[in-house]
Amino acid sequence: TNELPPYEPLQHPLSVASRDKLRVLANPNKFQANHNLLAEVISCLSEAAAEINEALSSKEKALEKARKARNDEDPAASQRRVEEMETAHEELQTKVDNMTAQMDKDVRKMIDVDNTIEEMQHTLTNLIKDVSNAATQRTQRSQRGVDEEEYPDFDPTDPTNATQRPLAVSSLFTERVSRARDRYTGQNMTERYSKNNHYVGFKSIVHDVRYNQNEDNPLPPAHLWFREDRPSHGETALGAEDSDDDLQIAKETISTKCPLTLQEFRDPVTSRKCPHSFEREAITSMIEMPSNPIRTEGVKAVQCPVGGCQSILTTSDLHSDPVLKRKIARLQKANRDAEEDSDEE
Questions:
Q1: DSSP state of 271
Q2: Radius of gyration of the chain (CA)
Q3: Is residue 184 classed as helix, strand or coil in its secondary structure?
Q4: Could you report the per-residue pLDDT of 11-54, keeping only the tens digit for each?
Q5: In the CATH scheme, what is the code of domain 252-345?
Q6: Chain segment 323-344, per-residue pLDDT in tens
C-alpha cells in the first residue's frame, strides 16, 4: 500500500511578513464592526419584543376597562363582549409569550457569538505577542552565535518552556479558542447573561412595557431569571442575601432634558461608567473638540460634565439605552398632554 504519513502542520517560525499579516487579522476595527453589527441586531430584537408586549399591555387595559364599564341595561351583551375580548386576549398573550421567548433565545445566541468574536480577538492579540517574543529570542540567540539545537524555540503552550518543538500558529489559535469556548460554555446561564448589558437591557425593556412600570410587579432579581439556575428548596442562591434592594424598586426620577444643552432629549446616550445621560451630538462634540487635551489609552476623553462626577468618558463608553429612551419618551408625552390639558382649561 502507498499510504501517506499522517499530516503534520508546518513548524517553521513565522517570517516578518507573516507576522505583519497576523497583525492585520487582529485589527480591532474589523472586530468592532462585528460587535457593532451584533449590537444592532440585539437592539432590533429588543425593540420588536417591546412593541409586541406593549400591544399586549394595551389590550389588557382595554379588557379591564370593558370589565368595569358593563352596561346594566343589557348585561348579557356586555358579558358576551367581555368574554370575546378575554378569548382574544388569551390568544394574543400566548402568541406574545412565545415570540418573546424566541426573541430572548435569539438575543442570547447573539451574545454567545459576540463572546466568541471577543475571545478570538483576545487570542489573536496574545498570539501575536507570543510569536513576537519567540522571534526576538531567536534573533538574540543568533546574534550571540548560540546553537539553535542547544536552545530550541520558545513554545508558549509549554508552561515549563521545555525543549518541545513549537506548535503551528494555526494549531495554537484553534487550541486557545477551544479552551476559551469550553470555559464559557461551562458557565451556567446566570453567569453568562445576567451581567451582560445587552441582555439586561432586553429583559428591562420587555418588563417595562409589559407591566408599565408597575411598582407592585418589579423585574425579578437576575439570579431568578433562569429556571435551571434557581436553587433547590432549602438552598440559598448566590447573592440572594443582597437581593433586598432588587426587590424594593423605588419610583425613578428621570430628567427629560440633556444637562449640556438643557433641551428635551431627542437621541440620548448613557455612560457605562456612571448613571448620567446626554444628548448624543452634544457629548460626542465635547469629546472630539480639537482643543480637548484629555486622553485615555491614546483616545480622546472628557471628565463627565455632571458636577461631582469624576468618571472619564470616551465615545466607546456611551451607549443607547432603549429602556431609558422609552421612559423619556413616555414622560415627554405625559408632559405634553398635561400642558394641553392646562391650556384647554
A1: E
A2: 29
A3: helix
A4: 656 777 887 888 888 888 888 889 999 999 999 999 999 999 98
A5: 3.30.40.10
A6: 778 778 878 887 787 777 776 6
